[in-house]
């Protein structure tokens, strides 16, 4: 109640300050007009300070409060650049970022929350420019970097070069670090005017050449947790290692159903199992059985609170940072073959046209008959390998039915306009020391497609079911793209002979699907696919069902991975409470209050995980190419910028051909058509062109690879 009242007061204050008739006022004037009694002065001051921290209000030098926009100011997050300038990322994703010249950065560091004055408005294709006038909140107090010793002091070069300044380390503040050590440095004095930030070393991660230190540095850079708190281990001791008989009571007993798991060979956390039968009417009865993690992870317990904080498992090249401890994810919550396991089951009856005609959602107990790998299923269905077909002879018709149903579901999805990208993902293979021995494109096969289709239809069915229940829920939404971005994409692909119907108006995902089908197999397929993806918004978690543009789905959620995603775990909890009749008005009110923050935090942590995974992948690719200097490869131009050409090799490694190395002519960058053209020779380099390149540099600090073109 107290929090609700404070929020109401806060809304009243900001509403008053933003009113068109409002003029800047001091605290006394605000108290008088808002009729705030003197004993509540501190409360009003606290509210105003919160609004200042959030960037909704600023306090002038004369002590008056005003909304930033009234003074031509705006609040956002500063994104630094290695060259000293940066960009103001705005809270409203529709608005374009604001360019901040180096001389107007005002001591801000990457990720700081700042107040910015607009000094040049947007003009045609040029971004608006701004000057940072105040730092509202520092983004990071600890930074990971490489230490270098000097005679009387040291300094740390940040790994993330968006922190453009080295950090000065006074004598005696280096914790014994020597040149080449990877360290965590705490900033003790922030930059001002021409003075660099100052700090002290709080942790030495190891020497830059020590095995594993490279990835550990990224883990610390992204502030990913490496250990579970002691209180979590204490709770784990109370959780049983096996399903006990009393836990089975009241559940649907599905142990007689033929059930399998299909995962990667090295997967240990098996959270989904599949059953499938043909009905007398010719329909398919598909069961998707998901580990009932919430039975063991009760709300507000230490394990739950830690899982909510982490929000997702992070999959790095050489390790997994799990959302839940391995004792749960690889133990009692893993659907291991031959063992009783508690599950939440969604059993769907699907007709030959791919439509779900009936479904039921139940708490269940299951027993998986066989654990299968993607490779084994591929060998049976695609390769018709005699050894595997004989080994699993009793299940071959079962797998063939799966393939048939997955094909039907995919056709149904494609018919409505769902977008399927066919990106070549990287598979990085390491030796025992963590050194890269091979990088290749990861191939999707019939088995991965079967599981994808079954999980998609299950997630849609669950989302639709609970949408119509009209109860608090967490949806996975994907908003429609910005028309401006689609217009830019349309303009660009026109030069390849492609077009998008409806660009600039109401765009149906079917148009992008059609474009992907048109470019399939072409030289420019990967390039245009990436441009399409960049033109789309990012999917996120939300409490309002706003549909999923990319899947052309009216209802969608994440239900199928509660071991590694917190929104799934939260959804399971809601489903079980609804099934048991415990979703009373009080509980729904509580969920309505907590779910927006769960959704927001989960979306944010998903972005952090994705960025950390990308950085580790980049690092390992640079490491792999570091002993291949002078080697020549054939690749494809995958990106063009004013500073050069990006070339991607068949193994997914990407490097830059800097414009200064194009020395056979003076090349002009044509931004509109995404190409370089020689001033005299008229030679053109465009996206999708095949070129030969020589590896000339692999920089482990910057995580970049440089190529030169070979005639």
What secondary-structure arrangement, pairings included, does this model have?
Elements lengths: L1 H17 L8 H7 L7 H14 L3 E2 L5 E2 L6 E8 L5 E5 L7 E3 L12 E8 L8 E9 L4 E8 L3 E6 L8 E4 L10 E9 L8 E10 L5 H9 L8 H7 L8 H4 L3 E2 L5 E5 L8 E7 L5 E8 L10 H9 L3 E2 L4 E2 L4 H7 L7 E11 L5 E12 L2 E4 H8 L4 H6 L4 H21 L8 E6 L5 E7 L3 H24 L5 E3 L5 H12 L14 H11 L5 H11 L4 E3 L23 H14 L5 H41 L6 E10 L2 E5 L5 E5 L8 E4 L4 E4 L5 E3 L3 E10 L4 E7 L1
Parallel strand pairs: 13-20, 14-21, 28-33
Antiparallel strand pairs: 1-2, 3-4, 3-6, 4-5, 6-7, 8-9, 8-11, 9-10, 11-12, 14-15, 15-16, 16-19, 17-18, 19-20, 22-23, 24-25, 26-27, 26-32, 27-28, 29-30, 30-31, 32-33
Helix pairs in contact: 4-17, 11-12, 13-15
How would you characterize the overall build of this protein?
With 711 residues, the chain is α+β, with helices and mostly antiparallel strands. The chain has 6 domains: 2-68, Arc Repressor Mutant, subunit A (Orthogonal Bundle), CATH 1.10.10; 72-137, OB fold (Dihydrolipoamide Acetyltransferase, E2P) (Beta Barrel), CATH 2.40.50.140; 142-210, OB fold (Dihydrolipoamide Acetyltransferase, E2P) (Beta Barrel), CATH 2.40.50.700; 230-476 and 550-614, no CATH class; 480-536, no CATH class; 626-710, OB fold (Dihydrolipoamide Acetyltransferase, E2P) (Beta Barrel), CATH 2.40.50.140. It has 17 helices and 33 strands. The strands form 9 sheets. The chain has a 7-stranded mixed β-sheet with strand order 13-20-19-16-15-14-21. A hairpin with a 5-residue loop joins strand 1 and strand 2. Helix 4 packs antiparallel against helix 17, helix 11 (396-416) packs across helix 12 and helix 13 packs antiparallel against helix 15. The model has no long low-confidence stretch (mean pLDDT 90).
